Amino acid sequence: MPKVDSRFAAAWLLLSLFFHASCGAQSREPASPLREFRDARGKTIQARVLQVRGDEVTIQRQDGQQFTVKISLFSEPDQQYLREFGRPATAPAKSVAGGSRASGSAPGGTGTETRVAESSAEDSWPRFRGPGGMGSSSARGLPLEWSASENIAWKTPLPGPGASSPITYGSQIYLTCYSGYFVPGQPGGSLDQLQRHLLALDRKTGRIVWQKDVAAKLPEEESIRDHGYAANTPAADAERVYAFFGKSGVFAFDHQGQQLWQADVGSGTSGWGTAASPLLYKDLVIINASVESEALVALDRQSGQQRWRADGIRESWNTPILVTADSGRQELVVARHGDILAFDPDTGEPLWSCKTDITWYMVPTLVAADGVVYCLGGRSGNAALAVRAGGSGDVTATHRLWTSKQGSNVTSPIYLDGHLYWMSDQLGIACCAKADSGELVYQERLSRAGQVYASPIVAEGRLYYLTRNGRVFVLAAKPQFEQLAANDLDDRTRFDGSPAVDGNRLLIRSEKFLYCVGQ
After folding, report:
1. DSSP designation for 515
2. How far, in Å, CA of 416 to CA of 42, rounded?
């Protein structure tokens, strides 16, 4: 059994006492909506956030009782939410004289930022794979069945293709795409016409509210295999939206579309393109710039200035994740060719490494639970492993828990209740394995699945797998295989971005449209 930090037991014992005993004064007006919080063992409580101070949070139960606990006692998604909630509003960014666009500089303009109310983060999907970066949602009432003509709230044509995923923050959806060159179904175009686009759409109607165009910094790759020039998913917080466009840079915009800064993270390119998405941590934007400079780069959220850099990130297309070790230590973890690396997210100092024995480049994003990191990757030999966080130096011999030859080369997994779930990117096979041993529980081929590049999501006891031809398989999220539905949105283009949850609806993007599925 995984070791559980004794503080979890103490915290939830305290919670149980609060359910049976009165303590303290009644709360002032709540600072956030009622929300379900979960600890690493899955125990839950309904509460509102009153205050976040340092590493502690004060929350209020439905009956008005209040208590203060450590943020590290909560699940990874809840920790992310609480830290974002407690991050103070920052002063407006100052424009740099002359409107220079050098690394970390802000273009000329108003110099103002628009802050979205903190409570709007409650139902947002603000980054790749959702609030905690694990593809998990607590939403209820999501659609089970749909088609191109049924159970579609709206469908919006896009100005170009892309493999990035939609995100939401406040009243808007954000999505990237590209145009001008190498667009499927169109004449070749010219590299000097290549542009990336950041779109803001209204969540209720799908109307495009604004569009920001970014010219490509040349020279670029003359062709990108499979997914084109817009595969990095944006991220958002209360003040800004962050978009990563490879060698063209990292851009920050306010929620009205005003560019605030641009930062360069390297000039490298690849025939596989660039795909890692921004990770927000405290006052940092962390970028896996493996393609651009073989580095992790941490930028200041307000100014775009580089705060730290960690080199040696080779052949890595995955988005870093934050993991809490048993000790409570926060770790930034990323997979590269040959091993998994952990860093101090505040300073970039290396903490530990673990050999994967996977001989391929690393694409799937990691997941973590109970202080254990789970990794998929490769198409032959070792293809999955688990490693316990919290070590120091090379931990292969001491912290690597298991390896397996069953995995995926592109799609990321889901962790739920002691099991891992994923879809093979090439074989159309849905898999489930025990998280404590890697032992395969089931392996089922799905009818007409084809290739799968999108990562799955889990919500309401269901797994949603999106294939490249627009078919979504809905499976029961349990270690016994059960297919609940198969839904088609085939519009004769590719579906490479991962689905996003928008309240009780799903957002699914193709190369041609953004679909809002549900009522």
Report:
1. E
2. 10
Task: List the 367-369 sheet strands across, edge first.
Answer: 367-369, 372-376, 384-388, 400-404
The edge-to-edge listing of strands for the beta sheet with 414-416 is 414-416, 419-423, 429-434, 440-445
Using DSSP's 3-state secondary structure scheme, residue 154 falls into strand
The CA–CA distances, whole Å, from 39 to 44, 282, 313 equal 7, 21, 32
Residue 479: is the preceding peptide bond cis (ω within 30°)? Answer: no
Neighbours of 440 (CB within 10 A): 15
The DSSP symbol for 189 reads: B
Q: CA-CA distance, 348 to 341, in Å (whole number)? A: 11
Burial of residue 509, with CB atoms counted within 10 A of its CB: 0-12 exposed, 13-18 middle, 19 or more buried: buried
CA–CA gap between residue 48 and residue 59 (Å, rounded): 5
Which amino acid would we find at residue 344? D
- CB within 8 A of 397, min separation 6: which ones? none
Beta-ladder partners of 424: none
> Which residues are registered as beta bridge partners of 201?
173, 208
User: To the nearest whole number, what is the mean pLDDT of the chain?
Assistant: 87
**Do 343 and 310 contact (CB within 8 A), yes or no?**
yes
State how far the Cα of 129 lies from the Cα of 85, in Å rounded to an integer.
19
42: nearest Cα among 138, 172, 130 = 138
DSSP state of 396: H
Reduced to 3 states (helix: H, G, I; strand: E, B; else coil), residue 441 is strand
Q: Which two structure tokens, joined as six digits, stand for 291?
A: 């393609």
- Confidence (pLDDT) at 325: 95
Amino acid making up residue 356: T
- CA 196, 202, 204, 205 dihedral sign is negative
Whether 195 and 162 have beta carbons less than 8 Å apart is answered as no
Residue from 380, 353, 386, 339 nearest 367 by CA: 386
pLDDT of residue 98: 30
Task: Please count the residues of the chain.
Answer: 519
Please, what is the end-to-end C-alpha distance for the chain in angstroms? 42
**Average of pLDDT values for 41-66?**
77
Per-residue pLDDT reduced to its tens digit, 55-110: 888 887 766 667 788 888 887 778 877 877 776 554 443 333 233 333 344 444 43
Measured in degrees and rounded to the nearest 5, phi and psi for residue 47 equal -160, 165
Mean pLDDT, residues 219-237: 94
Please provide residue 398's backbone torsions phi and psi, each rounded to the nearest 5 degrees. Answer: -110, -30
Going by the DSSP 8-state scheme, the letter that residue 118 receives in this structure is G
Q: Per-residue DSSP letters for 308-354?
A: EEEE---SB-SPPEEEE-TTS-EEEEEEETTEEEEE-TTT--EEEEE
Q: Which of 280, 254, 301 is nearest to 116 (CA)?
A: 254
Give the strand pairing for 259-263 and 250-254: antiparallel
Note the pTM of the prediction, 2 decimals.
0.83
